[in-house]
Amino acid sequence: EPEVTQTPSHQVTQMGQEVILRCVPISNHLYFYWYRQILGQKVEFLVSFYNNEISEKSEIFDDQFSVERPDGSNFTLKIRSTKLEDSAMYFCASNPRDSYNEQFFGPGTRLTVL
Amino acid sequence: GQSLEQPSEVTAVEGAIVQINCTYQTSGFYGLSWYQQHDGGAPTFLSYNALDGLEETGRFSSFLSRSDSYGYLLLQELQMKDSASYFCAVRDQAGTALIFGKGTTLSVSS
Q1: Are the C-beta atoms of residues B63 and B54 closer than 8 Å to each other?
Q2: What is the C-alpha to C-alpha distance for residues A49 and B97, in angstroms, rounded to an integer?
Q3: Best interface-test mutation with B: which of A29, A32, A43 has the largest number of B CBs within 10 A?
Q4: pLDDT at A12 exceeding the cut of 80
Q5: Given CB atoms, is B5 within the 8 Å cutoff of chain A?
Q6: What is the pLDDT of residue A72?
Q7: Strands, E, within B1-110: which ranges?
Q8: Of A40, A84, B17, B99, which is most buried by a Cβ count within 10 Å?
Q9: What does the pLDDT read at residue A87?
Q10: Could you read off the pLDDT of A21-75 as tens digits, one per residue?
Q11: Does any CB of chain B come closer than 8 Å to the CB of residue A108?
């Protein structure tokens, strides 16, 4: 069964450094998302991406963040100048057309900012 | 904006039935979804209700009352492996993003 994959599974970085989190959504899906989950808290929406552009973003997704689909398979989240409060699990998700309520989540990348 | 309320914790024993409630406030409504998340794992889609009534999928059922802005997830014949967090979610009014509740941690004991 196709699945969303994410790399790395765990990333440790120093405050102020840039990180890039990578995702490979399911191949025939058209809508891509990044969510984050701070330990013990709810899943929070960051950004959605469709047709090679951002379709919506939350208040969390400020100028520190950017997303890119550099080729036909990868979907990346870049965090510039990381802060301690960026420490969280970051999930990538995708869905096919017209199936917005059933999103398929990847296993996540645990980001630890020291 | 959107807000969702659900209990923080529920405990039950194997074989029992448990109901996890969710009330929501939204500007526009595009259905209520339920996701399961095991410790350290990814959220996994369980069920979706767009219209009032009960949707059944094996041991799990989900109910929606749009007039009451209320839904619930019903888990029957509980098993130890059902111990997890359960999140209700609605779509963001503007598009396709999901807005999640804070989650209900279900603990199933033998």
Answers
A1: yes
A2: 10
A3: A43
A4: yes
A5: no
A6: 80
A7: 3-5, 9-13, 18-25, 32-37, 44-49, 53-57, 60-65, 70-75, 84-91, 98-100, 104-109
A8: B99
A9: 98
A10: 999 999 999 999 999 999 989 999 999 999 999 999 999 999 999 999 988 889 9
A11: yes
- Mutation target vs A (from B91, B98, B100; most A CBs, 10 A cutoff): B98
The token duo for A47 is: 């950004």
Return the number of other C-beta atoms located less than 10 Å from residue A71's C-beta: 7
pLDDT reading at B94 higher than 70: no
Asked if B102 is an interface residue toward chain A (Cβ–Cβ < 8 A), one would say yes
Q: Which residue has the tokens 């301690």?
A: A84
- A106–B102 C-beta distance less than 8 A: no
Tokens of B67: 């007039």
